[in-house]
Amino acid sequence: MRNASLAVLITLPALISIAPQMARAQSAELEQACVAVAQSFMLVPTLKTGVVQSFPELDPPGARLTYSTRANPEPTDYTNEINCEFDKAQAPFGLKRFCISNTCYSASEKEDENRRRFLEVKALMDRQKR
Description:
Layout lengths: L1 H23 L3 H15 L5 E8 L6 E7 L11 E7 L8 E6 L2 E4 L5 H18 L1
Antiparallel strand pairs: 1-2, 2-3, 3-4, 4-5
Keywords: Signal
Protein name: UrcA family protein
Organism: Rhizobium rhizoryzae
């Protein structure tokens, strides 16, 4: 028990020094792009977000978030999740793929309807760049 406590004390400063680096990896721009994907897909003008995470350092870069379409959501209302993948970590991002709940949408999806929904959202995202 004493050795375990000592190990925690030794590694704690290293973990604390890593935490600010992890926070810097977040990308507000990627997160906002994923919110725009969700709004476009669900045809809603506003979206309330819960937990939002982005990963500009991954390949492909992406973001994921929980959301609610309710006007005044309670903390328990953030049960919907969207994951977005992009071509690049900076604008213009280039939507590559997104998943809502357990359904994914991309240009290479086998389901015609899922592929069509992806192409619609991608077209809307591309229009925003102009």
